[in-house]
Predict the structure.
Amino acid sequence: MVTTKEILKLPEPILPGHAACAGCSSSLGLRYALKALGDDVIMSIPACCTSVWQGPYPKSAITVPVLNIAFAAAASAASGITAALDIKGKKDTTVLAWAGDGGSVDIGLAAISGAAERNENMIYVTYSNESYSNTGVQKSGATPPGARTKTTPKGRVGYPKDISLIMWTHNLPYVATACTSYPRDFIEKLRKAQTMDGFKFIYLLAPCAIGWRFPSEKTIEVGKLAVETGAHILWEAIDGDIELSRLSKRYEDPSKRKPLDDYLKLQGRYRGIGGELLQSYRDYIDHQWAIITSLANIKKK
């Protein structure tokens, strides 16, 4: 178990003075990630919030080498980095692809799938603020039912893609979900992934104060409510075997979850959304729980 004291004592990998918004989950998540993985890391970052807030070329607030890559190319560039490291015989350097949901769930999905199918040796983290926040908060493939964005002003109709399960179908060494509000869980999963060879994927829920329309000081509270209401399920899969994370096991029983309204009422993107769309979100959550718990009961012989 990673203690809070241990996390606080780890070296700071993000320099002060960067351009992230107040309460930004992507900067918080990357801070945790680099604390977990150490300083022998090379990053690949596509167009996303992180590519902007880290600072304009040639400066960067990130203290490890970074390749800023085209929107669709984070996994492809990371594949090239792993190949170069292999040629040079460097086995201990961690390659970290760090991308938003727009560059992962939508624009970069083919490249991720290809790198996963080849089992390239990298950790790929999708930090998801459930929209294209960097370009004005448009709907992405990860936007949940009912959520307002610039392109869904009356609320998103339909269900999002579950990229975590899409990656799970690639038969990877490691797939997991996490949330920036639970740093110990995220750090433990990163460290576990770092010990494995091959393609490792982590979907990190990263609440966005601007896009979700909540006060910046509520970032941690909103993320915790996503888990406590069952809207975001924490799980991991080692060699395909899915297991609920400790933080989500208690919410497998729907009666133990907090009301979904506790989560939604803090977010302006759900203000005034009709009952039909909200019910579709509840149905989606129930469906996701049914899938994950069913798969968790299937173990390899």
